[in-house]
Each structure stands twice: as structure tokens, then as C-alpha cells.
Amino acid sequence: VAQTFDLGRVGDTYYITMEFVDGADLYKILRRGSEQDLDMPLDASDLDVENLAYFKHCAAHDFHLQRCGACGLLRYPPTTACPWCASPKSAWAPVEGSGAVHSYPEVHHAIQPAFKSHTPYLILLVDLDTQKGQPSEHEALRVVGNLVTPDGRLAPPEMVRRVGIGTRVRMVFTDVTAGLALPQWTIDEGATQPTKPWRYPHE
Q1: Residue 104 near residue 140 (C-beta atoms within 8 A)
Q2: What is the pLDDT of residues 158-189, one digit of tens each?
Q3: Whether this model's pTM surpasses 0.85
Q4: Using CA atoms, how far apart are residues 169 and 97, in angstroms rounded to an integer?
Q5: Distance between CA 11 and CA 51 in Å, rounded?
Q6: Residue 186 pairs with which residues in a beta bridge?
Q7: How many whole angstroms from its chain centre is CA 18?
Q8: How far apart are CA 62 and CA 171, in angstroms?
Q9: Please, is 65 exposed, middle or buried when counting C-beta atoms within 10 Å of its C-beta (0-12, 13-18, 19+)?
């Protein structure tokens, strides 16, 4: 399952919506959109400068974030100004894609019928190792992505059951179509893992 960003326009209004779908199946769904009632064109406006630059790096399987030109802090998601000092000046900087799961929802009921066969799946909120504890001790760069296999496919149920808060993960990329890849998370098998990561209780 991959994050798919629908960047589009209705009249003079620009909008961004997000859905989650397996990278290979996304292409099929886009091709048959009316059949599945999933009209999700991948249309990025030229005005969406920050997201265009962000996804350009992702397409090359390089994870970059904006570093503020004034206070020096990195930020996520891409924005036009620093959320801490409001400076509009920034430069893109490479960032290591490693961290620990901060929180997650586990999806068991698909919103769209086309996603039913993909449940259950995890959407991970990951604390990056980079800049953790800045600018205050409780803050971190928290990056959203789906739990996937090392080759970028939706994680199977047995893999889903292994992941909880504190699980160490590393970033991989799912190629969706030409010029678009999405940053995802897979279990970091080379890292020291918590003995029993906390998971939400299930019935």
C-alpha cells in the first residue's frame, strides 16, 4: 500500500487529497478509474512548488527535506515557510531514512471496495533519527508511510503483526509510475528491535 497524493484543481481552487493503495494496483485503478469510481488523477500543479521538488527527489529514491535558511531546522511535510521561525528561505538537504514507529493506525475496513483485498495494513508515523528531540525534547521529524516489504509491496499479515510502537524501520521507495515514487517503511532487520513492541489491543 502506498500513499497516493491527488493534486488537482477545481476552478481556481487547488486541493490535495491522499489515499492508500498498492503501487502496482494504483496504476491499474487509475487506468480504469470510472469503473471503480476511483477518479484519482496524478496531476501536480506548477504552483505546488514544494511538493513537486519533494517528489522529484523521491522519484530518484533520495529522501530530502527542507532545511530552514534562518534557524537551520529541517521540516516535514514540505511547506512554504519554516513552522518554527516562519522564514521563507530553505534548501533541500539529504536525510537518512531510518527511525522508530511513533504511532500507527491499522486499517481493517477499506474505504474503497478496490482496497478490500489489501486489509489489514499499517500506516506508520515514524520518528526519524535525524533531529530527534529538537527543537524541544518531545519533538521529532515524523514521516508518514505504509508498512511494506523490502521491495515496496504491501506488508503481509504476518509482517503487520510484528510491528508496533518502537519498532525500528528503514525507508524504501515504491515506484508508482514514471517520475513518481513514494517513501515507505519496512522493518529494519539489521537494527536492534524492542523485545515486544506495544500494539493496540484487538478483540
Answers
A1: no
A2: 999 999 999 999 999 999 888 889 999 999 99
A3: no
A4: 9
A5: 20
A6: 170
A7: 10
A8: 10
A9: buried
